[in-house]
Amino acid sequence: MKKFLVAIVMAAMPLVGYAAGGHVHLDHIEVDLKNQASLQRGMQTFVNYCMGCHSAQYQRFERAAVDLGMKPELVTEHMIFGDQKVGEQMTISMSKEDAGKWFGNPPPDLTLEARLRGPDWIYTYLRSFYVDDSRPWGVNNAVFKDVGMPNVLASLQGIQVATCSHEEMALHGLRGEGVDPLTNLPLTSCSSIVKGTGQLKPEEFDKVVYDLVNFMAYIGEPSKLDSHRIGMYVLIFLAFFFVIAFALKKEYWKDVH
Ligand code: HEC
């Protein structure tokens, strides 16, 4: 019995750690791996805006091309900017040592990032950079305090100026949508975008980031697409087999009574 109790306490330990992490507001998205057009756009954004600094070294260009329904030649032409072949991994030429010197922390490989942080976190993070002149790149981030990454999507989003303290932003989110979980009152926005600084409207920008995170969720587990397809066949087979098994059972038992 004692051992059993200890086992239960040990099993609950991760929850304690989670609770101690504090509440950070995350905007929720539903990843849709069946939406090929979204995944293709996401890959385009990833190679254009992220692969200057981040690799996705466990993913091959060709695998992505096949899974996302693109011709490998087109991927070679439009999505590979280094000297890689389409069959190679999505690596970059920036060395970890140099990057560490330039940014403080080297940009991590992003293949498994969506599994590490979760899509909601990345979606919120990429939309939560705000002006902070005390930081080396002039920006801070509501969900990643004192981040070493510049706001690489600023040309699309525009410059975001915070109107709350960092802690309030982390708690409520920069956009202030929905209701405050503590007071149940509608949230007021914690940020404003400087007019005319971004190419996209906020909804359009959100869509670009959604597609990008969708793609990052795909590279985190590319075989998920296959699993879904195969799982479907297995279920169809089981349903079919049930009918045969049932008929067989009837046949075997019919003389017993
Ligand atoms: C100019 C270089 C640069 C570019 C371009 C860049 N990043 Fe980063 N990124 C960094 C650095 C540096 C860090 C490490 C920040 C730290 O640890 O303080 C980072 C961190 C991150 C993290 C957090 C990693 C973690 O879990 O700690 C994510 C997620 C991320 N980047 C996503 C992206 C995405 C998506 C893009 C493309 C839109 C992108 N980055 C483009 C430099 C860059």
Briefly note the structural class of the backbone. mainly alpha
Shape, please? Answer: globular
**Termini Cα gap:** 48 Å
Q: How are the strands of the largest sheet arranged?
A: 1-2
CATH class: Mainly Alpha
Q: How many domains in all?
A: 1
The CATH homologous superfamily corresponds to Cytochrome c-like domain
Number of strands: 6
Strand content: 5-15%
Structural write-up:
The protein has 257 residues and is mainly alpha-helical. It has one domain (24-233): Cytochrome c-like domain (Cytochrome Bc1 Complex, Chain D, domain 2, Orthogonal Bundle). Helix content is 51%, strand content 7%. The chain contains 11 helices and 6 strands. It has helices spanning 2-20, 36-50, 61-67, 72-79, 96-103, 113-117, 119-126, 154-157, 166-172, 202-220, 223-253; strands spanning 56-60, 89-90, 129-131, 139-141, 160-162, 191-193. The strands form 3 sheets. It has a two-stranded antiparallel ribbon with strand order 1-2. A hairpin with a 7-residue loop joins β3 and β4 (139-141). α2 crosses α10 (202-220) and α7 packs antiparallel against α10 (202-220). The chain is globular and about 85 Å long. The model has no long low-confidence stretch (mean pLDDT 89). Heme C binds at residues 49-50, 52-54, 103, 105, 107-108, 110, 113, 117, 122, 125-126, 147-150, 152-153, 212.
Give a concise summary.
With 257 residues, the chain is mainly alpha-helical. Helices cover 51% and strands 7% of the residues.
